[in-house]
Amino acid sequence: MASRMDSGLEGSMQSLPTKEETHDDGESVRVYLRVRPATERELAIASPQVIFVDGPSVVVKSDPPRSFTFDGVLGETSTQQEVFESVGRAVGSSCLAGYNGSVYVYGQTGAGKTHTMCGPINSVQSMQFDERRGILCRMLDFIFAEVARRGADGSSSEHRCRCSFLEIYKEQITDLLEPQNANLQVREDLTRGVYVERLSEVAVSSLAEAFQVPSRNR
Ligand SMILES: Nc1ncnc2c1ncn2[C@@H]1O[C@H](COP(=O)(O)OP(=O)(O)OP(=O)(O)O)[C@@H](O)[C@H]1O
């Protein structure tokens, strides 16, 4: 695992969203595959591993070819917005309904985890909307826009949002907002559930504040 988007959002809602709004199909874990376009260097060595995408399945090169099925497959032409629509929006909606939600990316080095989660670094350096932004920014944008919308139409009362940023690498957890905070431990508690001990949590109330968190803590 390289990165994750967690809901540090607590909310009390006067009316909870419907199952359709939270995309609740009763499944608590969903797995999507995103296919990265092969680079020129990779194509010079071999043809692409993925032979074709068929709905939620991919057929990969092997003898004989093998098929794998996921909750969804985002092909190599998929946009950052399509990835958000398939993966991020449902998690954001259920966080607003008071459920915990996480988005994890998993894959070997160079697979596209950072691209999918964050997008290029210069796509998040200004507040101006940038198509290249990844799930993390899009979920924050979605959550704060929804909180504002619900506040304006009187359908929600109070929300608190906290940001954390951690890395798990070789079984070691590091707090990316306080990098000297290394070797953190995962604990479980009856009221808090599973949590990372000593992980910093920064309260934020807008997308602009959330964007400031990494630099504010540097
Ligand atoms: N869907 C995509 N479309 C176009 N380019 C992509 C896509 N996914 C990844 N890339 C490009 O592939 C390269 C590797 O991607 P990225 O850095 O996100 O991999 P990573 O899984 O985070 O790697 P590492 O584990 O080594 O940090 C980057 O240049 C990135 O811009």
Automatic annotation (TrEMBL):
Gene Ontology MF terms: ATP binding; microtubule binding; microtubule motor activity
InterPro entries per record: KIF15/KIN-12, Kinesin_motor_dom, Kinesin_motor_dom_sf, P-loop_NTPase
One GO term (biological process): microtubule-based movement
Region feature Disordered, mapped onto this chain: 1-27
Pfam families given in the database record: Kinesin
Keyword Kinase: no
Record carries keyword Nucleotide-binding: yes
PROSITE patterns in UniProt: KINESIN_MOTOR_2
Domain of life: Eukaryota
Keyword field: ATP-binding, Coiled coil, Microtubule, Motor protein, Nucleotide-binding
Compositionally biased residues, Basic and acidic residues: 18-27
GO CC annotation: microtubule
PANTHER family xrefs: KINESIN-LIKE PROTEIN KIN-12D
Family in the record: Belongs to the TRAFAC class myosin-kinesin ATPase superfamily. Kinesin family. KIN-12 subfamily.
Protein name per the record: Kinesin-like protein
Organism: Cladocopium goreaui
